[in-house]
Design goal:
It contains 4 helices and no strands.
């Protein structure tokens, strides 16, 4: 069977016109996550987790109390750890871009703080068993390293 350019173009327009695909099935955890705000609102109105688990189970989400509590705890943790920023919303400066968060070297026109401390002492020349004077290719050879006595 040969595929013509016309067939491809017809498929292209068909695929372009498809509506957004919505998942038909979700897991129990996804169902609880989708219903979390309503479940928490019912809890605030006095419904205990046992009754909410029973209601969910009767309506197609078979779940026990322990699992419901665990899923709700997970959705709360996710909500607390992720901050949703609306796209394009002005949220102020990003972390590390405020002037007080940057070091003086990062701030244009600022200089490092001055102190009356003495400059650091000079580094003494290498003495003893070191590899400082050995050439680069010999520094990695075990034969070039000094032995301990």
């Amino acid at each position: 069977m040969s595929i013509t350019v016309q067939d491809v173009e017809a498929l292209r327009s068909l695929l372009a016109e498809l509506p957004r695909h919505e998942a038909r099935e979700v897991t129990k955890q996804e169902a609880v996550a989708l219903l979390a705000s309503e479940i928490r609102a019912a809890q605030r109105r006095g419904y205990p987790p046992e009754e909410l688990a029973r209601i969910l189970s009767e309506r197609g989400v078979p779940i026990n109390v322990a699992t419901l509590r665990g899923y709700l705890r997970r959705t709360r943790k996710v909500r607390k750890t992720t901050k949703v920023r609306p796209h394009g919303a002005d949220q102020g400066p990003a972390a590390g871009t405020r002037e007080e968060d940057r070091s003086p070297a990062d701030v244009p026109g600022a200089s490092a703080p001055t102190t009356n401390a003495a400059p650091p002492a000079p580094i003494p020349p290498n003495r003893g068993n070191t590899t400082a004077g050995i050439g680069a290719d010999a520094a990695h050879s075990s034969a070039a390293l000094p032995t301990r006595r």
